[in-house]
């Protein structure tokens, strides 16, 4: 019975990891779309901000779920850090925080780090696939 429970539990954990990873990826792509289309500064500003703040929670969950693998945890930690930086810059663009950065520079920084998140997301996906293949080869 213990083996069955452990097997089911491990399958659930794998699914949660995959769902969180997919949410992070889709969230980054959606955020880039909203930003590049100009919707993030207009009608969808609050939605863009909400997705960004929820991204912190989802990315933290992804980090927690993948904490045992050092490579994936390192990438997830970098993604979490940059997501928090993005949220801080976004709140500054909202006018809620004063960072002392000129508005145009803040916009360009916010935009640029979105693409860094995109690249790190691809790296995390590649590392996750490699880890999954290695674990299947050894089991």
Structure report:
It is a single chain. The protein has helices at 2-37, 45-65, 70-94, 103-138. With 139 residues, the protein is mainly α. It has one domain (25-138).
Biggest β-sheet: count, sense, barrel? none
Q: Which structural class do the helices and strands define?
A: mainly alpha
Overall outline: elongated
| Sequence stretches where pLDDT stays below 50 over 5 or more residues | none
Total count of helical runs of at least 4 residues:
4
- Topology as a string of helices (H) and strands (E): HHHH
Overall mean pLDDT score? 88
Rg calc: 17 Å
- Indicate the percent of residues in helices: over 70%
Strand-residue proportion: under 5%
Ends: how far apart?
Answer: 21 Å
* Structure summary, number of beta strands: 0
Number of domains: 1
What characteristics describe this protein?
0% strand, elongated, 139 residues, mainly alpha
Question: Can you give me a brief rundown of this structure?
Answer:
The protein has helices at residues 2-37, 45-65, 70-94, 103-138. It has 139 residues and is mostly helical.
List the helices and strands and how they pair.
Layout: H1 2-37, H2 45-65, H3 70-94, H4 103-138
